[in-house]
Input
Amino acid sequence: MPIAHRGEANPILWPVLGLGTAINVVAVLVGGGIGTLAGARLPEGMRVTAMQAIGIVTLLVGVANFLEFDNPLVPLVSVISGLVVGEILGIEDGLKRLGDYLERRFSKGESPVSRAFVTTSLLFCVGPLTVIGSLEDGLRGDYSLLALKSGLDFIAALAFASVLGWGVLLSAGTVLVVQGSLTLGAGFLEPFVTDAMISAATATGGVLIVGLGLGLLDLKQVRVANMLPALLFAPLIVASAPLLPF
Output
């Protein structure tokens, strides 16, 4: 069944297309800016501890998202399929080259820009609030879910930037492109998107977020960006479920 709506848009909210994404971008920029300024004043030991705390919470968020779907085969097949495509396209290397270029261009190697950019871009754009919020913003001008996400992203950007530096600010561009595209394409996507498809994409995104958490804890560096196509495979697998053996 198509994605369920939560009723009519709040009359207090102005139906301005894309306003939710604009708020989210500003939240990331402000949170990241404050975190960058504050992080420079934190002792090294506190930064390490903060990174460990962020890594643990990221792992828990990933696990919680993974449990959104009751068939683990769908995220598994999606991640493997997406990884094959991502490796062929070289998504991870492309994003790192972009981050490294910006680091050389603007910070002279003083900040782990590439890691901050890739990590926070994935974290801010993988999740149910991104998809559902963007669709509702595009369909009815209801940006309440994206406003909620903006508050969460503000806190996350502040925390990450205090440890990883100004590279977190670059993820605002990723938020703009991803959420903006979903908002503009909402009219086309809405008839085809179901709750089950969103749950499958959320669970698959949980696997990616766990990979981010492992990297933040320095337990294992996972090429998470190369798994991004999995977020497209998951809903497609659910849509074709009657034809599959699981």
